[in-house]
Design a protein that fits this description.
By secondary structure, the chain is of the alpha/beta class. The protein contains eleven helices and eight strands. α4 runs antiparallel to α5.
Length: 264
C-alpha cells in the first residue's frame, strides 16, 4: 500500500480481498464489541472471515440483538462471520438441525460449518444432506476433516477423498483440524505432502488452534508457501501470522531479508 507510513519500501504482498488463497480466518470467543473494533481497525485488511467460537455464549448468554450487532460490525469492515462447528454438532445430537440452520441464516451469519470432530462421525449420506441443507438456505458451507481428540492415525488417503467429495457437493472450503495437523506433522510430514498434492490446496483451511500456533504457521508456510489458508487464528495472532507467512517475523527467520545485500 503506497500510502502506508513506509510505502517507499516493498515486502511480499498478498492478494486483495476477496481472496481464495493467503486467507486468514479469525476464531474469537465472543470478544467485546469494542475489542472487535480495535482488532478490525488494525487488521481488517488481513482478515477474510471471522468465526465466533464462544459456543456456550451463543447458546446460553449472548442475545440475538448482540450477535446481530457483532455481525454488523464485522460486515462494516468487509468481514463475513460464521459460527463455529460445535453448535451444529449439538443441533445434530438434539435433533434440531433445521431450527439451527434457520437461526444461523436469520441472525445474519454468512455461512455454517459442518463438522463432526467431537461426536460420532457422520455417515456419508447424512454429511451430504447437511451440506445440501446449508446451501439451500443460501449459506456458504465449510466442512471439516479430522478429530479434535486424536485417537486413530488419520487415514490420509480417505481424508483426501473426503475433501474432494465435500468440494464436489458444493462446500466452499474444508478445514483440516488443528490437532490432526500437529499429529501428522510430528509423525508423517511426507504424508501431509501427499495429501495436499492430491487436492486443491487453495480449498483447504489449515487450523492453527491453541497449541503453538505461531510455530505451526511458520512450519506450514515454510513448507507449503505463503499462499496457504490459515484458520482458527486467535485475534492477537493475526498480525504475527501475517508477518510469519511473508517472512517478516522471527518465527520465520526473517527469510524475506536473509542473505540480501545492501543497495548503495
Amino acid at each position: 500500500m503506497k500510502d502506508a507510513a513506509f510505502g517507499m519500501l516493498d515486502v511480499p504482498g498478498i492478494p486483495p480481498k476477496p481472496r481464495e488463497t493467503s486467507m486468514i480466518g479469525v476464531s474469537e470467543v465472543g470478544i467485546p464489541l469494542r475489542e472487535t473494533e480495535d482488532l478490525l481497525e488494525i487488521a481488517a485488511a488481513l482478515i477474510d472471515y471471522a468465526k465466533i467460537t464462544d459456543h456456550t455464549g451463543l447458546i446460553d448468554r449472548h442475545t440475538r440483538a448482540w450477535v446481530r450487532r457483532k455481525i454488523a460490525l464485522y460486515n462494516s469492515y468487509g468481514v463475513p462471520v460464521l459460527p463455529g462447528g460445535i453448535p451444529l454438532q449439538i443441533a445434530v445430537v438434539q435433533g434440531k438441525v433445521r431450527d439451527y440452520l434457520q437461526a444461523v441464516r436469520d441472525l445474519g451469519f454468512a455461512g455454517v460449518e459442518i463438522s463432526d470432530d467431537v461426536i460420532e462421525p457422520f455417515e456419508q449420506g447424512y454429511r451430504e444432506e447437511l451440506i445440501a441443507r446449508g446451501r439451500e438456505l443460501g449459506l456458504k458451507v465449510t466442512t471439516e476433516v479430522g478429530r479434535k481428540n486424536v485417537g486413530a492415525v488419520l487415514d490420509l488417503d480417505a481424508t483426501a477423498r473426503q475433501i474432494a467429495r465435500d468440494l464436489q457437493l458444493g462446500a466452499y472450503k474444508v478445514y483440516l483440524e488443528s490437532a490432526e495437523i500437529q499429529a501428522v506433522a510430528e509423525r508423517d510430514p511426507a504424508g501431509l505432502d501427499r495429501l495436499l498434492a492430491s487436492v486443491d490446496k487453495s480449498a483447504v483451511l489449515f487450523e492453527l488452534g491453541l497449541v503453538q500456533p505461531l510455530e505451526k504457521a511458520a512450519w506450514l508456510s515454510g513448507r507449503y508457501g505463503a499462499d496457504i489458508n490459515f484458520a482458527s487464528v486467535a485475534p492477537p495472532d493475526v498480525v504475527p501470522v501475517d508477518a510469519i507467512r511473508r517472512g517478516m517475523n522471527r518465527k520465520s527467520s526473517y527469510r524475506f531479508l536473509a542473505g540480501k545485500r545492501p543497495v548503495r
